[in-house]
Amino acid sequence: MLYLKSFCFNPFQQNTYVLYDTKGTAFIIDPGNSTTSENEALKTFIEEKNLAPSRLLLTHAHLDHVLGNRFVFDTYGLLPEVHPEDEFFIERMGQSAAMYGIPCEQSPMPKEFLSDGQLISLGAYQLECIHSPGHSPGSISFFIKDQKVLISGDVLFRESIGRSDLPKGNHATLLESIQRRIFPLGDDVKVFSGHGPSTTIAHERSHNPFLT
């Protein structure tokens, strides 16, 4: 059995996820923790569940999704894994933080990169990396077929979609990613987004004003 714990962190109200199995193997996905209390909330949960984080995965590398990268590295020794086209945002993390007036600790740079179609094993389960650009050029959605779960980052939200007016964003590309890469996964797939509540592909196909 896989479990998914979500935290709402930082001024952008970003969803940080811990994905883990019954044996305690865990992945941290998009750590947005940026304060001492947020760091403690993440660490306390991991300790209480006796989890052993083994990978730090990023759906993309916008500032609000990587603010906790340094803490995760310092605490668990994990380097971020991201699509190579989003390394740009990690390199410029300090500039982004200054623009928003948010303090940050510079993330370590990735040594391993994610690619479209890559399968990542967490115990008996596999996450498929689905390249879904548009919000950012390297956006990756993580699909767990056996659980009918998609961690979509900022590609698809409940009755909304990700912004495309940020650097390197593209609205037409984002819509194509959703229609061609996300919707075919199946109406019964539950979607856990980078912000806001979860949804399903069926609900978005019928109710999302950007896609209907």
Describe this structure in words.
- This protein is of the alpha/beta class and 212 residues long.
- It has one domain: Metallo-beta-lactamase, Chain A, CATH 3.60.15.10.
- 25% of the residues lie in helices and 30% in strands.
- It contains 6 helices and 14 strands.
- The strands form 3 sheets. A 6-stranded mixed sheet has the order 1-2-3-4-5-6, covered by helices on one side. Strands 7-8-9-10-13-14 form a 6-stranded mixed sheet. The protein has a two-stranded antiparallel sheet with strand order 11-12.
- Strand 4 (52-57), helix 2 and strand 5 (80-82) form a beta-alpha-beta unit.
- The N and C termini lie far apart (34 Å).
Strand order of the largest sheet: 1-2-3-4-5-6
Radius of gyration: 16 Å
Strand content bin: 25-35%
The total beta strand count reads 14
A few lines on this structure:
This protein has helices spanning 36-48, 69-76, 87-91, 93-100, 171-182, 201-207, and strands at residues 2-9, 14-21, 25-29, 52-57, 80-82, 112-113, 119-122, 125-131, 140-144, 149-153, 156-157, 160-161, 190-193, 199-200. With 212 residues, it is α/β, with parallel strands linked by helices.
